[in-house]
Specification:
By secondary structure, the protein is an alpha/beta fold. Helices cover 40% and strands 16% of the residues. InterPro entries: Glu/Gly-bd, Iono_Glu_rcpt_met, Ionotropic_Glu_rcpt, Iontro_rcpt_C, Peripla_BP_I.
Length: 936
């Protein structure tokens, strides 16, 4: 007692010295077990009060410590301390609450609310997060105050960064220096960003945690914690996670530099900065009162908060605003309805304190529109830097801007270009299957691939704004489910979150849609078709000669010569022929003598539309000519008909024209690609037929049926089709090719004795036919399904890609791509048009006729040369002396005698020269008709 009186007298004397009155204040201080920094800061504040008597404060502190998860023990401790203070007539003027969150914070708030104790709380959360203080009356709002600590404000910078950089996904990792329980919903509310907020895993699971987050399509990482925690997280990440498609943001309360052992990384580093106007005071407090614990911003916040709360209570007491009849009740007296009704305006007193702050001023809402609780905090700036780390050492730090602590303040950018470079490029992982023309390897292409789907994805990327890296799936499959329900191919990659996009000629199937999502189709209704080797019809320039067999041609030639010879014989020996009755036919216009040459010419030309010309005069010769005409007419008609039929039959030589034709024959083998959608189709159709057969068999063999019912099932024809069962069995026996190249090679290696037909997607077959002249597409498409882009189930890319594809459809961009890759492709071969029934005869089959013409013209030219030579260089004709008589002159009339003296031609006028004694040598042109004797 004497000691207490002596202490009070000493304090009174000190106050008198400075001319002020010392105000005694009782404080009930409640803290969490792990919040040691608050203990240190409050102790420094009390020490500061003691060493600065001009403040006029004397503080009596009662300390209660609780566990964040144990409300019962904390409440008992509070009630015990509070009861002791009332018993000692030292009721607390203020409850200073530095609990952070959880049941400890809620317990303290429930305690202060129920007993009406003026409280200043430094717990986490905005107004809606303070569940016990949500619906306070205006009176209670005056003395139940909450000020948000810096660690509760710092996470808000993540919201500002995401808004500024338009980040669409984020992983927020934090350690025990931050409390994020209440941030899960509010931090990124109303922002279209997929995000995960989770605490940093321990050393054993940290690398796996980052891997799992990456598999959730996250490439923007925010790490909230101490520098040690940030270092551990960065060193747990793979080197590939620091490439351009990832972004790392390290956010801490500490003010030291960032260090970590990574090979090559550029990290956005954010740390708090103190108010420039308070740096002197901060340095003084650190050195004089030894407040050097990290993080400094939190320590000085508790220091300033405690000091400001004490001064506010002192001002209330000294102003006389403190109720003189202050009512206190104990925990035992409280029944839920008897809370004391106090009118203490602690909020105004707290706002009006003029004591300078150490790290930053308090931001207190002005006016009554914005609530005090959940909107009051200490102002400070976050310094934003780009830290480049090479080989485990920080080699460069560049300032990017600052962020002023606030609930919705934007970041202040100093270097816009630099901060944009720290944004993670939206790079999606694309897996594909090479299949022309959708996907083709091209080392010269930017991504190593080209094709219809690559062009499509590039156009979508221009709209959605992303980049991608493309890889070929290892097993070369789009995705099929085995008997155990396990998937392979691209579907497996999407399920395991190893791929973002599945690209290629991937069919939309119902079972695939149960595990992945598809966009709207970019290629509608593609069916299965048949590809076979194009039958090659052998062409021949002299194909028109093969219509008749060789022996027939020889017989025709023999008949030609025999008829010509017979006609010559008949004309020579018939008394009615022209050459034997010249006098009779001397007035006829046509005077044709059928020597052997004329007979050959007549029979030849009789076979042509030109005709043979004048027929023989004698009846026997005309019968021979008529017989030859009849023979020629039949031969020509038969040749023409057979030539047309021969060419037509060669064009109709197509063994298979539909799937039914393929199923009904056994000569040609057929199979789809192993693991393809076509294989799945035939396998399932066969299984369905087998199930139908079992159902029918069970029905027909059911003993419970009556005789009448069983008779209705008795049919002669098999009621269930086994078409696909036989086809599937034939496919298994033929062997399924593992690639399209293998299938094409099998088609080319097939022969007429054992052909091979490939069943696959019509688009693939159509492209193969365009680029290979020896292949053909047979039959109509069946089992038509659309092609679409595959994404992970629930991926936001589905809606984004849907909008982009619909835009491309409206612009007719997809039709242009089809034109480019199926009609204007540079690699397609310019194949010869196959013969069609409606087409004419090709030059390859009728060109021999032109050769015959050229051969005939050539022979005619040679004959002309021979005739010219023969005429010019033949021996002189035999000449005889002419003895003219008056009888002969009268009988012959004037006869032109061809005389050739010295190689010249002389006419009848030359006879005049004979009178002059010249010798004339003439050639007899006609025998003496008087000496004609019949030759029969």
């Amino acid at each position: 007692m004497n000691t207490q009186i002596l202490r009070q007298l000493t304090a009174y004397a000190v106050v008198k010295i400075v001319g002020q009155t010392t105000q005694n204040i009782n404080i009930l201080f409640v803290n969490e077990v792990d919040n040691s920094l608050a203990n240190v800061a409050v102790e420094v504040a009390l020490n500061y009060v003691k060493k600065n008597p001009q403040l006029g404060l004397s503080v009596d502190m009662m300390y209660v410590e609780g566990n964040r998860t144990d409300s019962k023990d904390l409440l008992q401790s509070l009630c015990s301390k509070y009861g002791e203070s009332l018993k000692d007539n030292r009721p607390p003027h203020l409850l200073l609450d530095t609990t952070l969150t959880g049941v400890s914070s809620e317990t303290v708030k429930s305690f202060s609310l129920a007993l009406g104790i003026p409280t200043v709380s430094a717990s986490y959360g905005q107004e809606g997060d303070l569940r016990q203080w949500r619906d306070l009356s205006p009176t209670k709002r005056g003395y139940l105050l909450q000020i948000m600590p810096p660690a509760d404000m710092i996470p808000q910078v993540i919201r500002s960064i995401i808004i500024y950089m338009n980040i669409t996904n984020a992983a927020i990792l934090y350690d025990n220096t931050f409390v994020m329980d209440h941030k899960y919903k509010a931090l990124l509310q109303n922002i279209p960003t997929r995000h995960v907020i989770t605490s940093i895993a321990d050393d054993r699971d940290r690398a796996g945690q980052i891997e799992k987050l990456r598999n959730l399509d996250i490439n923007n990482f925010f790490v909230l914690g101490s520098l040690t925690s940030i270092k551990q997280v960065l060193e747990s990440a793979k080197n590939e996670y620091f490439e351009r498609n990832f972004a790392w943001h390290a956010i801490t309360q500490e003010q030291k530099d960032l260090t970590c052992n990574v090979e090559n990384a550029t990290i956005m580093f954010l740390r708090p900065m103190s108010d420039s106007s308070s740096k002197d005071r901060l340095g003084s407090i650190r050195t004089t009162y030894n407040l050097k614990q990290e993080p400094q911003i939190t320590g000085f916040f508790y220091f300033d908060l405690t000091l400001r709360a004490l001064i506010a209570i002192k001002n209330i007491l000294q102003s006389g605003s403190w109720p003189s009849n202050m009512k206190y009740i104990t925990c035992e007296d409280y029944d839920g309805t008897n809370t004391p009704n106090h009118t203490i305006d602690l909020k105004t007193a707290f706002t009006e304190v003029t004591e300078p702050t150490t790290f930053g001023p308090f931001e207190i809402p002005k006016g009554g529109k914005i609530p005090f609780n959940g909107n009051t905090y200490m102002k400070f700036d976050m310094d934003i830097n780009a830290v480049s780390i090479r080989g485990g050492a920080s080699v460069n730090t560049r300032n990017l801007g600052t962020w002023e602590a606030s609930l919705n303040a934007p970041i202040n950018v100093a270097n816009e270009a630099e901060i944009k470079n720290l944004t993670a490029d939206v790079v999606y992982r694309v897996y594909t299957v090479v299949q022309a023309p959708f996907i083709m390897r091209d080392p010269t292409a930017p991504k190593g691939f080209k094709g219809y789907c690559i062009d499509l994805l590039n156009k979508i990327a221009e709209i959605v704004e992303f980049d991608y890296e493309i890889r070929e799936v290892e097993d070369g499959k789009f995705g099929n489910m085995n008997e155990n329900g396990e998937w392979n191919g691209i579907v497996r990659k999407l399920i395991d979150k190893q791929a973002d996009i599945g690209l290629g000629s991937m069919s939309v199937m119902a079972e695939r849609e149960t595990v992945i999502d598809f966009t709207v189709p970019y290629y509608d209704l593609v069916g299965i078709s048949i590809m076979m080797q194009l039958p090659s019809t052998p062409s021949s320039l002299f194909k028109f000669l093969t219509v008749l067999e060789t022996n027939v041609w020889l017989c025709i030639l023999a008949a030609y010569f025999f008829t010509s010879f017979l006609m010559w014989i008949f004309d020579r020996y018939s008394p009615y022929s022209y050459q034997n009755n010249r006098e009779k036919y001397k007035n006829d216009d046509e005077k044709r003598e059928f020597n052997i040459k004329e007979c050959l010419w007549f029979c030849m030309t009789s076979l042509t539309p030109q005709g043979g010309g004048e027929a023989p005069k004698n009846l026997s010769g005309r019968l021979v000519a008529a017989t030859w005409w009849l023979f020629g007419f039949i031969i020509i008609a038969s040749y023409t008909a057979n030539l047309a039929a021969f060419l037509t039959v060669s064009r109709l030589d197509t063994p298979v024209e539909s799937l039914d034709d393929l199923s009904k024959q056994y000569k040609i083998l057929y199979a789809p690609l192993n693991g393809s959608s076509a294989m799945t189709y035939f396998q399932r159709m066969a299984d369905i037929e087998a199930k139908f057969y079992e159902i029918w068999k069970e029905m027909s063999l059911n003993d419970s049926l009556t005789a009448v019912e069983r008779s209705k099932l008795a049919v002669w024809d098999y009621p269930v089709s086994d078409k696909y069962t036989k086809m599937w069995q034939a496919m298994l026996e033929a062997g399924l090719p593992n690639s399209l190249e293998e299938a094409v090679q099998r088609i080319r290696n097939s022969t007429s004795a054992s052909g091979f037909a490939f069943l696959g997607d019509a688009t693939d077959i159509r492209y193969q036919v365009l680029t290979n002249c020896d292949l053909q597409m047979v039959g109509e498409e069946f089992s038509r399904k659309p092609y679409a882009i595959a994404v992970q189930q629930g991926s936001p890319l589905k809606d984004q890609f849907n909008n982009a594809i619909l835009m491309l459809l409206n612009r007719r961009e997809l039709e242009k791509l089809k034109e480019q890759w199926w009609k204007n492709d540079d690699v397609q071969n310019k194949c010869e048009k196959p013969d069609d029934q409606s087409d004419g005869i090709s030059i390859q089959n009728i060109g021999g006729v032109f050769i015959v013409i050229f051969v005939g013209i050539g022979m005619a030219c040679i004959t002309l040369l021979f005739e010219f030579w023969y005429y010019k260089y033949r021996n002189n004709a035999k000449v005889i002396d002419i003895v003219e008589s008056s009888e002969q002159q009268q009988h012959l009339g004037t006869i032109v005698k061809t005389v050739r003296p010295a190689g010249k031609l002389v006419k009848q006028d030359s006879l005049k020269d004979a009178a002059k004694g010249q010798t004339l040598r003439t050639r007899t042109l006609m025998p003496n008709l008087s000496k004609f004797q019949p030759r029969f």
